[in-house]
């Protein structure tokens, strides 16, 4: 797969990276993250520019996130209920993420992308919750810049071990994101308890 993606990026350049990040952010099954890592390898080889690659990845991911946000906002829950079998989403699967979103929208927007089974629903859920676009874009941008920057650097500095990195990102990073998210929810709960005692 490495050779196929590198060939794709070499042929299509920054436009291909933008398209890959767009598809990844929509929650579709596509190796967009791996594509950004491999773009980092090409940056290291001098075949792509770092800043231009970062802008392409951030722009593509943001455009896809906004598209998913508007799908969630305009089509809402009925859309997911009707197409639930296709997306493998049961109605009850939406309730837990909705509870997390209601508790802390910023944490959900940033860390929700790391949670297995929820990551691909994050922008749709935010749209369904009728959260303002500007609010979503601010917190989504915090995640996107970190995501694109980290993945490009991983490709630049550790590209020769990309299989190990890809395996780590696909297996352990979501668990680390889940742990951070749960710690944040615990903090909110503890803060709420202190307010009630006062």
Number of domains: 1
What percent of residues adopt helix (DSSP H or I)? over 70%
Q: Which residues sit in consecutive blocks of at least 5 with pLDDT less than 50? A: none
Number of strands: 0
Q: Specify the number of helices.
A: 9
- Secondary-structure-derived class: mainly alpha
Whole-number mean pLDDT: 78
Beta content comes to under 5%
Rounded to an integer in angstroms, the radius of gyration calculated over CA atoms is 18 Å
Describe the structure.
It is globular and about 60 Å long. It has one domain. The mean pLDDT is 78. Helix 1 crosses helix 2, helix 2 crosses helix 8 and helix 6 packs parallel to helix 8. By secondary structure, it is an all-alpha fold. The N and C termini lie far apart (58 Å). It is 82% helix and 0% strand. The protein is built from nine helices and no strands.
How are the secondary structure elements laid out?
Blueprint: H1 2-25, H2 32-44, H3 50-82, H4 84-87, H5 91-103, H6 105-111, H7 122-128, H8 133-158, H9 162-197
Helix pairs in contact: 1-2, 1-3, 2-8, 3-7, 3-8, 5-6, 6-8
Q: What does this entry show, briefly?
A:
By secondary structure, the protein is mainly α.
